[in-house]
Amino acid sequence: MKEFWSERIRDMVPYTPGEQPRGRTFVKLNTNENPYPPAPGVVEAIRDAAGEGLRLYPDPECTALRQALAAYHGVTPEQVFVGNGSDEVLALCFQAFFGGERAIVFPDITYSFYPVYAALYGVTYRVIPLREDFTVPVEQFLGDNGGVLLPNPNAPTGRALPLEDIGRLAQGNPDVAVVIDEAYVDFGCESALALLDRYPNLLVVRTMSKSRSLAGLRVGCAIGSANLIAALNCVKNSFNSYTLDRLAQAGALASVEDEAYFQENRQKVMATRARTAAALEQMGFTVCPSQANFLFASHPDHSGKELLDGLREKGVLVRWWNQPRISNYLRISVGTDAEMDVLLSALRELL
Amino acid sequence: MKEFWSERIRDMVPYTPGEQPRGRTFVKLNTNENPYPPAPGVVEAIRDAAGEGLRLYPDPECTALRQALAAYHGVTPEQVFVGNGSDEVLALCFQAFFGGERAIVFPDITYSFYPVYAALYGVTYRVIPLREDFTVPVEQFLGDNGGVLLPNPNAPTGRALPLEDIGRLAQGNPDVAVVIDEAYVDFGCESALALLDRYPNLLVVRTMSKSRSLAGLRVGCAIGSANLIAALNCVKNSFNSYTLDRLAQAGALASVEDEAYFQENRQKVMATRARTAAALEQMGFTVCPSQANFLFASHPDHSGKELLDGLREKGVLVRWWNQPRISNYLRISVGTDAEMDVLLSALRELL
């Protein structure tokens, strides 16, 4: 029943995003959304942009947004690329930088979209096992690779690498692109942006979905040398000239402009994370040290699947993977303090 | 200076969209935008959707929008795919249906993005010359092709094929996908949707950019058998699970719901097109019979480039291609009556 399908997609297994429930109201801790609303200026900017101007194409270069991001991060606009969510930016990276004879490398436990991109674009890859404690064995990422892809902090573990190790990765793979996926970086991890001046092969990918509470707006970006950004533009302009609509450009720009709100928001999330991690540990959970807006935790006496199902029955959604090494873990997004209290009581009842 | 670029993109020449001018105000007849605003309900729906909900991911299935489009076109939701503009939908078609050993076919004069997609996704193609009068020689599209891609009406000529010929295309290429790009269909051309029941290999691609005045919102769709739509979903979910943000989904849905506004809008454009075509012919232009929201015209005494530059100096943007067979033609989008009057006076001065 796959008549007319191209050969390349017949055996493909697409990515499965976390459930977006309809109907019943859950405490939704399964897709790492931010529990707080976007900055007030975002909504205002979108409402202003929602007018007659919608009949006109958006700026394909996203000039104003790129300029704002460049100023914010202390780079030039030619070093900034924006896309329709960081998932799109990552997909374009596969086409722009990867796919030669040598395999690219990424960890065995990581964002589960990576192998899917590789299958779609025909990129060979090799996974490198994380250590037992889920830390990244950096030395194993150095060598004759076709490219490197690494989230920092990693997902779904939440563990972060120090800047020094990111530098080793870039230096140890000097002739290929090293892509650091910083989707969760704003929750306490050092950014590789500080290393861009030293490594022309280093690309930092980011999203506004998490720390800027804009998952519903679909805005991601990449920052690196102008040469790497030109490659992304080449792919983008061979695929879809206008990936960001007028409203997304306007809203994202307004978010960048409200620094105070951004800082307050991420501090709140980090404080709730610390409080929740401590409570989970008190209940006997092993909790990975997290620099992200989620916690990765397992319990010695209860399987991951059992807790997933039990929580769902009690109206709390978290995420679980039926996958070697981590099938006993739950990934729990950090919500508000009140939401985490619901989670913690539900877990207390289940244990 | 293409260090780190993947082999596949080093020689690629991206698509060049029509200019989106900044600064000076032009009468903008170069990118086939609709001169009238979107339906009033669109703006209202977007303003309603622009709130705290932006912190949450959008519905990756775009359920409400797909249901509305299905009801509107008399098909099931499983027969509808939506994407981030029809450019994205077309790009996904290349991956979903094309790329085997046999070349796909499209006309020599057509949407200039097609060969760019083919280069990006490694799809071999063969162009089939239009007849001297820019009509499509359907018989030459029948045979051992790897797929068929045809805009109806064609761009930039504006000429349309009757339904019967689309049927011949689908029937004459029974084992591959036949993709009809109906970006401009609402301006007077028969839609191939009427043939879907008979041809499981027929896919209709559409956009809300033109006839629904939503170029700035980036919404396109594909309609066909559930099997073809499943292939598009397989590619989409291997590339970017959430291609339509919350605002685009809400705005597009509201547009579908205002049928009266839609009908009035397209009638106005068609009336202005007829009036403008007549005036151009009176000035000595040869004007292609157009079923689209643009006119394709050439003058015996003045080159296309000369008129393009002259019009620009007078503040009117139109589109021109430095390409064999059509380098003496201008493509002129249909604006308001007042805008077309500016165009016509400018041309009168130039001739």
Automatic annotation (TrEMBL), chains A, B:
Superkingdom per UniProt: Bacteria
Reaction(s) the record says it catalyses: L-histidinol phosphate + 2-oxoglutarate = 3-(imidazol-4-yl)-2-oxopropyl phosphate + L-glutamate
Keywords: Amino-acid biosynthesis, Aminotransferase, Histidine biosynthesis, Pyridoxal phosphate, Transferase
DNA-binding found in the keyword field: no
One Pfam family recorded for the sequence: Aminotran_1_2
InterPro entries in alphabetical order: Aminotrans_II_pyridoxalP_BS, Aminotransferase_I/II_large, HisP_aminotrans, HistidinolP_aminotransfase, PyrdxlP-dep_Trfase, PyrdxlP-dep_Trfase_major, PyrdxlP-dep_Trfase_small
Chain positions found as N6-(pyridoxal phosphate)lysine: K210
Domain Aminotransferase class I/classII large: 26-347
Pathway(s) annotated for this protein in UniProt: Amino-acid biosynthesis; L-histidine biosynthesis; L-histidine from 5-phospho-alpha-D-ribose 1-diphosphate: step 7/9
Listed EC numbers: 2.6.1.9
HAMAP family: HisC_aminotrans_2
The protein's assembly and partners: Homodimer.
Name of the protein in its database record: Histidinol-phosphate aminotransferase
Species annotation: Candidatus Flavonifractor merdipullorum
